[in-house]
Prior knowledge:
By secondary structure, the chain is mainly α. The mean pLDDT is 91.
Amino acid sequence: MNKSTAYTLFFILRMIIYAAIMLLINLAFMHDAREITSTGKFGENSLTEILQESLIFILGIIFLASGRLDRELTPVTNLLSVFFFMAFVREFNNQLEFWFYLVLPLILIFAWLVIRDRQKIFPALEKLLKMHVSAYLVTGFLVTFIFSRLFGKTDFWVTLLGEDYNRWAKNAAEEGTELLGYSLFFIAGIEILLHLFKNRKTAAA
């Protein structure tokens, strides 16, 4: 099998796996559409929320591993890892009144890393952004932290459905979009890992 064929088949395999992730997301939505938890449909105890939390935690681990594969990226992958661990703790803000005290040490670690690696962060970020797979990372950020927040604004839903709109519909749209964004982040993390593994293998050859 020549390199072009192998590359194409591996790409198709990854697309099939990522399509399966999209299917699983849809199944989670359907499950939450049927189930009413103690916090309502698509609430804090929903499968959608649990999947979000799981992906965020895994992303923290993925970026830690990425930094071990390429030390030049470590200054920025460490920050990304701590950021996702902070986001993971933040997801429990409605269950834990003291969540801020759990995230505070991570904030301090983040600040310390910025100060310690201040000379290396931008070169590392440049190297990361020059990877074509960083497009997945940027897309995940735009969907999760910008579009989903704007899409979930109450003003939009009041304008669309009126003052007495169904809150569950808003929850489904907002949390579903957020899960999609984290899934794109997850795909980005996997693609970055694969890219770094390939580079390491090439360098060792």
